[in-house]
Design a protein that fits this description.
The structure holds three protein chains of three kinds. Helix content of chain A is 83%, strand content 0%. Chain A is mainly α. Chain B contains two helices and no strands. Chain B is rod-shaped, with a radius of gyration of 25 Å. Chain B starts with a helix and ends with a helix. Chain C has two domains: 110 residues, Immunoglobulins (Immunoglobulin-like, Sandwich); 189 residues, no CATH class. In chain C, the strands form two sheets. A five-stranded mixed sheet of chain C has the order 2-9-8-4-5, with no helix packed on it. Chain C has a four-stranded antiparallel sheet with strand order 1-3-7-6, with no helix packed on it. The longest helix of chain C has 39 residues. Chain C starts with 5 loop residues before the first helix and ends with a helix. The chains are: A mainly alpha, B mainly alpha, C alpha+beta. Chains in contact: A-C, B-C. Chains B and C meet through helix 1 and helix 2 of B and strand 1, helix 4 and helix 7 of C.
Chain lengths: 219, 74, 353
């Protein structure tokens, strides 16, 4: 059970690091607030479908911003130090867990912000909560893994966008499909299929990331 | 629901094609049962393969030149 | 000639076979159009029919036609007059009441010819009811059962309205696209081998197969757009499959951008191999699952993105499957040239030091 201990320690480290550099998290908060306000200024009133799509678009850009720094914030030397100490799976898992919690927080903030300015369009809370939870997990795994790849290059920020946007589309499409059920008073029978599909994609991506990361990290 | 949308879509396509076919003679591409569309597709595939071969040819020439220049230096 | 491997010859033979069979086998008997498209109940309707690849003059006595409502309800033609090899005049007695409660009911036309086989035109005629009485329609219905349809034995490709001869594009557009998938799978296999055992040859093979796959993907998109322009009306209709293919191509373009970001060949090979495997796994839901969730103009949409048994008959299969293998082998040949070139460069650089 060495690995759980390692994950715990690494998770603790991530949290402390985030707490000390408050600019990163406050930057994201400001980003979410500003985007929601701009969206409000641009639309004032919107259709429920537009609301859902805008929610996920804001979420997409906020998550890219939040996760890009995952592997670049620490210096190469310090990373080498981590690698000599811990298991690569533990390192990736701790980052994935931390990032999905962060994304969950961001998504609730976006939901709150949109409800405050534009109004809450979510009628069925349950499918929307499922979408937010699995969406955060899927975004976190994909973006964390892609940021691990792009951190190896010199201009990681632009490569992050190029690599991750096409890859995230399957998850994004499923999320929008699932959230469409949340804005209609009567949930259609497609919810079950969408949830299974989303869970399957999340698990496959997580499995692949855990399987491939050991080959990626050594330099 | 999906089925209905799909059916109306195909129905629309079908009807519009037939309606239009009545008051206009088929153009070149649509003549002979749209056979020339197949010809266009095959020409596109062939041109694509030729373009790819040109790209390969360029890379090969570059490699040849590199090797040749280096041999002369020695 | 001897130094060319057997599989390259096989690829050439399969492609030549695809071209010959794909272009020479004629289309089956079909109905291009029927006029008028809509009639009223109780009418003695007279239709003019234009056939495709038909020989009505030879088959004056063997012609039978029905207007079909569903499996239990069909109206037989009262009289069929042959006006030419491709033109028929059909007389139907439309009953006064239909056994349905709808105001407008569509009928499909079934035409059976002893020489040419059976042709079907779906939603051929719309019948409008002035007064609706379902019970009367059921009780007064004189059904003429559709039986003894001719089974033709010759080699023909199925006739489809709007598509006509372009059904042959299946062997170029669809087969090219499926062989692209085979090439991408080959690239992933070589990427996995590189990750497990970092030999430069595996990386250059993975790169070569990915580049040919990308090339086939672009060809598939372009040929699809040409085909769509004359069947769907415009080259790009934001169909799911068009969009997912474009995304898949973006994913693989990103692969080449990622490769160009590294100097060190070992790091380049390792990281691009990892990305290739990861991207391929994410492409599976993109290409195979999302098209099943959304309506598409592609055949078999709304449930199944692949060709169903109705779209691909046994004659087409005999050309279609060899075509996929043939295109994949031609692609493998092009990839083969590329990685052999890489090997020469590798060797030359080694000898320099």
């Amino acid at each position: 059970m060495q690995i759980f201990k390692e994950i715990g320690v690494l998770l603790n480290k991530e949290l402390k690091l985030e707490w000390r550099n408050k600019y990163a998290i406050s930057g994201i908060l400001l980003y979410v607030g500003a985007t929601v306000f701009i969206v409000y200024m641009a639309f004032f009133e919107m259709e429920p479908l537009t609301w859902v799509i805008l929610f996920w678009v804001i979420m997409l850009f906020a998550s890219v911003n939040a996760i890009t720094k995952s592997f670049t914030q620490e210096s190469k030397k310090r990373q080498l130090y981590f690698y000599s100490l811990v298991n690569p799976t533990a390192l990736l898992l701790s980052k994935v867990i931390y990032n999905s919690l962060l994304l969950l927080l961001i998504s609730f903030l976006i939901w709150g912000g949109l409800s405050l300015f534009v109004g809450n369009m979510v009628v069925n809370v349950q499918p929307f909560l499922i979408a937010i939870c699995f969406g955060s997990l899927g975004f976190a795994v994909t973006f964390t893994f892609v940021s691990a790849i792009s951190a190896k290059t010199d201009n990681s920020a632009s490569l992050m966008a190029i690599l991750s946007f096409p890859l995230i589309i399957p998850i994004l499409v499923t999320l929008v499909n699932l959230s469409k059920n949340a804005i209609e008073p009567l949930a259609s029978e497609g919810v079950q299929g969408d949830v299974t599909m989303l869970l399957a994609i999340d698990l496959i991506v997580l499995g692949m990331a855990l399987l491939l990361y050991p080959y990626l990290w050594r330099d | 629901m999906k089925k209905i949308i799909f059916l109306t879509l195909t129905l629309n396509l079908l009807l519009s094609d037939v309606l239009f076919a009545q008051d206009r003679t088929p153009d070149f591409m649509r003549s002979v049962g749209k056979m020339y569309v197949v010809v266009a597709v095959i020409v596109a595939v062939f041109l694509g393969i030729v373009l790819f071969l040109t790209y390969l040819d360029k890379r090969l020439t570059r490699l040849e030149n590199q090797i040749h220049d280096n041999d002369q230096k020695q | 000639m001897k130094n060319i491997s057997w599989w390259k010859w096989l690829g050439v033979i399969l492609i030549v076979y695809t071209f010959l069979a794909g272009m020479l086998v004629p289309l089956g008997h079909g109905i291009v159009e029927i006029n008028p498209r809509s009639v009223k109940t109780g009418e003695q309707a007279q239709f003019t029919l234009v056939g495709y690849n038909s020989h009505y003059e030879q088959d004056k006595d063997g012609l039978r036609a029905w207007l079909k409502l569903d499996d239990e309800h069909a109206i037989g033609a009262k009289e069929i007059r042959v006006k030419g090899d491709r033109i028929l005049e059909l007389d139907f007695d439309i009953p006064a009441y239909l056994p349905v409660s709808k105001r407008v009911q569509d009928f499909s036309l079934i035409l059976d010819s002893e020489t040419d086989g059976t042709a079907v035109l779906p939603t051929a005629v719309l019948v409008t009811q002035d007064s609706i009485d379902e019970e009367k329609g059921v009780s007064a219905w004189k059904n003429s059962a559709i039986t003894g349809l001719t089974v033709t034995t010759g080699m023909t490709f199925p006739f489809r309205a709007i598509i006509y001869e372009t059904i042959r594009n299946t062997y170029f557009h669809v087969a090219l696209w499926l062989s692209m998938m085979l090439l991408f799978i080959a690239a992933v296999v070589y990427s996995i081998r590189y990750v497990r055992d970092p030999q430069p040859i595996w990386d250059s093979k993975a790169r070569a197969f990915t580049s040919v796959g990308l090339f086939f993907g672009i060809l598939g998109l372009v040929t699809g757009m040409i085909w769509a322009a004359y069947t769907w009306g415009k080259p790009w209709s934001n169909d799911v499959k068009q969009i997912t293919t474009a995304i898949a191509l973006l994913v693989y373009l990103a692969y080449f951008i990622l490769r160009s970001a590294f100097e060190d060949p070992e790091q380049k090979g390792r990281i691009s191999a990892v990305y290739n495997i990861f991207a391929f796994v994410l492409l599976i839901p993109l290409i195979y699952v999302i098209p099943r969730m959304v309506d598409s103009l592609h055949p078999g949409a709304g449930g199944n993105p692949a060709f169903g048994s109705e779209d691909l008959d046994s004659t087409m299969r005999m050309v279609f499957y060899p075509a996929i293998i043939g295109w994949a082998l031609i692609g493998a040949w092009i990839a083969n040239l590329q990685y052999r070139m890489d090997a020469i460069r590798e060797k030359w650089i080694e000898n320099l030091d």
